[in-house]
Amino acid sequence: ESRPPAQSPWPYPRWIAHRGAGKHAPENTLAAFRLGASHGYRMFECDAKLSADGVVFLLHDDTLDRTTNGHGIGGELHWATLSQLDAGGWHSRQFAGEPLATLEAVARYCQANHALLNIEIKPTTGLEFETGRAVALTAARLWGWPADGATAALPPGAVPPLLTSFQPESLKAALEATPALPRGLLLETLWSGWLEAALALRCEAIVCDQDLWDTTSVAQARREGLRTLAYTVNDESSVQRLLALGIDGIITDRIDLFSPAA
Ligand code: G3P
Ligand code: CA
């Protein structure tokens, strides 16, 4: 039996800057958020994981080596060590000294600049549940969002962060910890049972590799009231194809090419 289409309006804009604006500035740092905002973006995707002492911070890879001057598994270090790393110099000299960002710093930035956030839960291998729980609880605290759904006291129009993950286990932890925060299942393939999994996790959205969206998969998601988002969309013809399909959200690196006002 199908669920009815989602009743409430989708509160997120169509255009979402990937990893902050992570091609033109060092990904997942505040410098990337600032640059995306300067191009008119008001929603950002980012990658969140857990330090060894329980601080939620932004890092895409398991290891620090590609995007910082540190080495090894990021989630195995304490924040006191992580906070000393240079997460900008690898990108270009202009960003040398840019630190790793905590989710708390990003929340403050977004709130001060009226920006919305898509937090991808990016667990260190083996910590899928713990990371999902920690990210969800931290996000609920930082946005002042009641975990249990009692949102009546929030200011009108308040919009929570959207939590996403490739890991069903992380979304399960988020559902248990903060059922009121919206969730999206990330997919790089349409694995068997993806739709049922998204519904069991009470997701509001499917966030797919762009090539997985076609008339069939969009219709399948829509029939269940799920929103459709695509990553990572960096050329005009792909944008046109996705817009023709009626995709709700486009995650892009090309803040220079696509204006979110268009
Ligand atoms: O959240 C969409 C996209 O960011 C997923 O892929 O590898 O860039 O985190 P990745
Ligand atoms: Ca991501």
UniProtKB/TrEMBL annotation:
Name any Gene Ontology BP term.
lipid metabolic process
GP-PDE domain: residues covered: 13-262
At the top level, the lineage of the source is Bacteria
- Which InterPro entries does the entry link to? GP_PDE_dom, PLC-like_Pdiesterase_TIM-brl
Q: Name one Pfam family in it.
A: GDPD
What molecular functions are annotated in GO for this chain?
Answer: phosphoric diester hydrolase activity
Q: What is this protein called?
A: Glycerophosphoryl diester phosphodiesterase
